[in-house]
Design brief:
By secondary structure, this protein is mostly beta strands. It has one helix and four strands, in the order H-E-E-E-E. The longest helix is centred in the N-terminal third of the chain and has 4 residues. InterPro entries: YlzJ (IPR025619).
Length: about 70
């Protein structure tokens, strides 16, 4: 089988599934985000899931931003 993709082999076949247990889809300020849970219980933005181009210009939605749910 040949798989044509721009992704790395480790992205398709990860060696450790423990990384994915901390990743979630959450709703924050009526927007959907793909986030990773930190050790403190907060969420770090990995990806904004939106069809509105204006959402991507907002700095509080940038990847790496910490979302505090508490």
């Amino acid at each position: 089988m040949i798989l044509y993709t721009p992704l790395a082999n480790t992205d398709i076949f990860p060696a450790d599934n423990a990384v994915f247990t901390k990743r979630h889809c959450v709703s924050y300020q009526n927007k959907q985000f793909f986030v990773e849970e930190t050790d403190k219980g907060d969420f770090q933005v990995l990806q904004l899931l939106s069809t509105d181009p204006q959402d991507f210009l907002r700095q509080e939605f940038n990847p790496g931003t910490i979302i505090k749910e508490h």
